[in-house]
Design brief:
By secondary structure, the protein is of the alpha/beta class. The chain has one domain: Zn-dependent exopeptidases (Aminopeptidase). The protein is built from 6 helices and 8 strands. Helix 4 runs antiparallel to helix 6 (251-271). The chain starts with a strand and ends with a helix.
Length: 272
């Protein structure tokens, strides 16, 4: 089978702690797990079916690839190097927040190589679509202004408004409106019969609640369409599929989600 001309970026799917910070790391496995995008490295694993795929191996709390280099703790506790998780749990032991030298080391060894690889992958002439793949909490976490609000099952971001059109604050879009709306409608079809444990506002949306993070802002807007994908963790971190004690999800559920997302990506490329 020929590979789809797609670039897949999975920046928050890692489950490792960098050795440079192991001795000062304070997060439990559970806290690090829920701060990141657990299982996205498997849900969006199309490495044998797409032309290019990048996956980060380390926890989001180690280094957040979806932040600017200067967006950093303590000014932003949830920055590229964090002091707290999105659930307000301290990442490091008391008085051990990385200083400038350690921050620079983390950026040099883990942040910049991913972005360099992303830039290199974007140079492939045969690519037709880029996607930055994430998961999101089923309800907004405490750091959000709408904390506790249920989220849609899928949110697509192109830096635009709910119809994919140019709007503030970015005043530009990273994919044509018709493309992001096509993807939205395809996600609505494949996830139409999901039975989740909360009442969601929609199956799939464009730019609500997320219109696109730093990666989408940085690399999107060129000749190739680029879209951020956010999947609600209500789809797999529910008691029906997930064991909180072991942090394990039923493999069949991950495979099902993988298949559904790939269906949408395949149809999207065919529609370009």
């Amino acid at each position: 089978m020929s590979k789809l001309p797609i670039l897949v970026s999975i920046p928050h799917g890692g489950r490792k702690v960098a050795p440079e910070i192991e001795q000062i790391w304070a997060l439990s496995e559970e806290d690090a797990f829920h701060d990141g995008d657990p299982y996205t490295a498997s849900i969006y694993d199309f490495s044998d079916r797409v032309e290019a795929q990048l996956v980060m191996e380390y926890y989001r709390a180690v280094i957040d690839l979806n932040r600017r280099e200067d967006d950093i703790a303590p000014a932003n506790p949830d920055g590229v190097v964090k002091s707290h998780t999105c659930y307000n749990v301290e990442v490091y032991k008391p008085d051990c927040l990385p200083g400038p030298d350690l921050q620079e080391l983390l950026l040099h060894r883990y942040y910049r190589p991913y972005h360099d690889d992303l830039d290199q992958a974007l140079q492939q002439e045969n690519l037709k679509l880029g996607v930055d793949c994430h998961s999101m909490a089923a309800v907004s976490p405490p750091i959000e202004s709408d904390a506790g609000t249920p989220r849609p099952l899928i949110c697509l971001g192109n830096l635009g408004d709910a119809e994919g059109l140019v709007c503030k604050p970015f005043r530009r879009i990273t994919s044509p409106p018709e493309l992001v709306l096509f993807m939205r409608d395809e996600f609505r079809k494949v996830f139409a019969h999901e039975d989740v444990d909360l009442e969601v506002p929609d199956i799939a949306t464009a730019n609500l609640p997320f219109s696109g993070g730093y990666i989408t802002q940085r690399v999107g807007g060129g000749p190739m369409p680029f879209v951020q994908i956010e999947m609600s963790r209500a789809l797999y971190l529910s008691p029906r599929f997930f064991d909180e004690a072991t942090l394990m999800v039923q493999p069949g559920r991950i495979q099902d989600l993988n298949h559904k997302v790939f269906q949408v990506l395949k149809r999207t490329v065919e529609n370009l």
